[in-house]
User: Fold this.
Amino acid sequence: MSEGVFFFDTYAFFEILRKNPSYEKYVGARPITTIFNLAELNHGLKRDGKKYADEMTRKNEASLVEVGVEDVIHAIDFRLKFKSRNVSIPDSIGYVVAKRHGTLFLTGDQAFKDLPNVEFVK
Assistant:
């Protein structure tokens, strides 16, 4: 595992912004994420009327990692395998990308609670 690096899914971004004490230790971590998670972050912040949505999205641009065709293929296989958990496509892609980068997938999404390669935090 990459030391101090975590894949932040959208859930993790929101919990850090909400200053959830359980996520305090990840504030200094080096996040990686995909464009899909930043899109969800931007949308969620704008939906909640947050004026800093674009600023937060741009601030996290340096955390972006590329998503390739193989990531998409593996993500859809993962999603279909865990169909009953109703995992979103962005989360499926993020989970696969985290594994490829040798990092833990940081989330509080119940669908990932007992999966390997996950740092589950509520």
Observations:
- Helices lie at 10-17, 35-47, 53-59, 69-81, 89-101.
- The first strand starts at residue 5 and ends at 8.
